[in-house]
Specification:
CATH architecture of the largest domain in chain A: Orthogonal Bundle
Membrane topology (chain A): Multi-pass membrane protein
CATH topology of the largest domain in chain B: MetI-like fold
Number of domains of chain A: 2
Distance between the termini of chain B: 50 Å
Oligomer: heterodimer
Number of strands of chain A: 0
InterPro entries (chain A): MetI-like, MetI-like_sf
Shape of chain A: elongated
Main location (chain A): membrane
CATH superfamily of the largest domain in chain A: MetI-like
CATH superfamily of the largest domain in chain B: MetI-like
GO biological process, one term (chain A): transmembrane transport
Radius of gyration of chain B: 24 Å
Protein name (chain A): ABC transporter permease subunit
Largest interface: A-B, 59 and 65 residues
Radius of gyration of chain A: 24 Å
Number of helices of chain B: 11
Largest sheet of chain A: none
Strand content of chain A: under 5%
Number of helices of chain A: 11
CATH class of the largest domain in chain A: Mainly Alpha
């Protein structure tokens, strides 16, 4: 709690700098407009203008908040101009992909822990794949699946599943291996079978690792979905809002989509953090 | 049909060979540790090639590895131009600027508990956000050429690097800092002789995370506009023209560049933090 004041100070400082930067970056346009109209602006008029332009280089925070409010609360969620609509498209693809990616990742991790040949053969590739900008294949997946008639949610979900898959594999393998030899020996003296050892010892022991990698995975999933929305011709979703915004120079629209994505990401990570805290508390681990 | 059967037989044989190798004493040696993943990788390529031929998959859906390799070999000049544009100009410059700025910021706020307590949660929060979404804005500000890509990379690597460095600077123990105090070491002496060396494992962790982020940032930013060269540009245009062999060749370049970049940072880490337990044994 004692860090609330420093954080608030920091956020306030960012907002102040932002307003200042908005003046600096938008002033040129405001002066040009005034010169064209044959008038000169006083300082206060100039500042007021830089904070309320239609297509500013850098929109002021209140403009973004107003746009967010206008496109969420003031519009029907089914409207094509509503951010709730686009956010939902992105969120549903992210969640579908995240669930499948995580499930597959956990299964592969269980396989790796139990099979030495899989461990030696697959694990180096799983680790190496984390150093590769996987996202580069996103446009290809979208277009190829489109060409064989699969459109909509599924291609984006595949990308987001792919991105959340590897962090979960790597984290889960570490987690499933985290019980020490003493505990594994104890289970052996109990004559526990492999599934029993997995279910009663390895899996509970892996939960802290699982949650840590879920947080990384869900953020990666969201990025994957957003990038996956770029090459489809920009129809629906937060990524599409950003792309159309950049085509038409609608900076406020880009920023509001960016903020919506940020809020979504923060919400998803926050929910996982909450589940983590509740689970670990019930397990008595905290 | 023959190719499909061949793929299946090859797969089974390779799996059998790998499980035999994994139980063999050879697997404890360096050679064995290299051999098993290599066999696995080669198997994937062979099965891919055989299935694409056997099932007659159209090359606009999935080209076989041989076609990708052929394309790679014949379009080396284009790939090189793209590599220079995206990796060297966009990613590396942004990586250097972003990581350098984050490192200096971390050292600068190191003396103020107040700034740290405010900046760390904000940094942690921002590090989890989809920063790549700033790409359209930065492309608008800095133009289509590599400067905007470099700016996206700076935005992406700054906060992970900052958080790691600040954590690292707190890594030396109270005992060690007390010892420096009994030597009557100045702040700068403590910083250079104790705390920066102790921070190095964390700093390199941040540097390694940032390598991937840098490549992602540079490639994705090109989807929002670029001159007529660059890996992201080539991928998005070739996808549109159904030239998938070229897309895969670019992906191969990205994979090679990504692993080499990471490998280089890991190698430097090994030299700098040779004393750390994770580097021994």
């Amino acid at each position: 709690m004692r860090s609330v004041i420093p954080i608030l100070t920091m956020v306030a400082a960012i907002v102040v700098i932002w307003y200042g930067a908005a003046i600096g970056m938008n002033a040129q346009w405001a002066r040009d407009q005034a010169a064209r109209a044959g008038t000169t602006l006083s300082t206060s008029e100039l500042i007021a203008d830089t904070w309320s332009q239609e297509r500013p280089k850098l929109p002021a925070p209140h403009q973004i908040v107003a746009e967010l409010w206008k496109t969420t609360a003031m519009m029907k969620p089914t409207s094509k101009r509503s951010l709730v609509f686009h956010g939902w498209i992105t969120l549903s693809a992210t969640m579908l992909g995240f669930v499948f990616g995580t499930g597959a990742g956990i299964l592969l991790a269980i396989g790796i822990v139990h099979s030495r040949s899989m461990d030696m053969g697959v694990m180096p590739w799983a680790i190496a794949s984390q150093t590769i900008p996987i996202i580069a294949i996103a446009p290809m997946i979208i277009v190829v699946l489109n060409s064989i008639g699969i459109t909509g949610l599924v291609p984006k979900a595949i990308i987001s599943a792919y991105l959340s898959f590897f962090p979960v594999v790597v984290g889960m393998v570490k987690g499933l291996r985290s019980p020490d030899a003493m505990q594994l020996d104890l289970l052996r003296t109990y004559n526990a079978s492999k599934p029993q050892a997995l279910w009663k010892l390895r899996f509970p022991a892996s939960l802290p690792y699982l949650f840590a990698s879920l947080k990384v995975g869900v953020a990666a999933s969201l990025v994957g979905t957003i990038v996956g929305e770029l090459p489809t011709g920009a129809i629906r979703g937060l990524g599409a809002r950003m792309l159309t915004g950049s085509y038409y120079g609608q900076t406020i629209q880009i920023w509001s989509a960016l903020f919506a994505a940020a809020i979504l990401a923060a919400g998803l990570v926050g929910i996982i953090g909450l589940v983590q805290r509740l689970t670990l508390r019930r397990m008595g681990a905290v | 049909m023959g190719w499909v059967v061949f793929a299946f037989v090859f797969w089974v044989a390779a799996i059998a060979l790998n499980s035999w190798l994994a139980r063999h004493p050879l697997s404890e040696t360096r050679l064995g540790k290299l051999l098993v993943p290599t066999i696995f990788g080669v198997t994937i390529l062979v099965v891919w090639e055989a299935l694409v031929r056997g099932l007659e998959v159209s090359s606009v859906i999935l080209p076989p590895p041989s076609a990708i390799a052929a394309k790679f070999a014949t379009s080396l000049p284009i790939l090189w131009v793209d590599f220079v544009q995206t990796i060297v100009k966009g990613a590396l410059s942004g990586y250097a600027i972003g990581c350098g700025a984050a490192f200096l910021t971390a050292v600068a706020i190191d003396r103020s508990k107040f700034l740290q307590r405010g900046l760390l949660p904000v940094g942690n929060f921002v590090a989890a956000l989809p920063i790549v979404g700033t790409a359209p804005i930065l492309v608008m500000w800095f133009g289509f050429d590599w400067q905007s890509k470099s700016a996206v990379v700076v935005a992406m690597v700054f906060f992970p690097m900052l958080v790691n460095t600040v954590e690292g600077l707190a890594a030396s123990s109270a005992m060690q800092r007390d010892l420096m105090k009994t030597y009557s070491a100045s702040y700068l002496q403590t910083l250079f002789k104790l705390r920066l060396p102790a921070a190095m494992p964390f700093v390199f962790n941040g540097l390694k995370i940032s390598t991937t982020l840098a490549l992602i940032g540079a490639i994705v930013a090109e989807f929002f506009g670029s001159p007529v060269k660059g890996m992201g540009f080539r991928i998005s245009t070739e996808v549109g023209r159904m030239g998938l062999d070229m897309v895969w060749a670019e992906i191969a370049v990205a994979a090679l560049a990504g692993s080499a970049f990471y490998g280089a940072v890991a190698l430097i880490e090994k030299g700098v933090t040779f004393w750390h337990p994770s580097q021994r044994g």
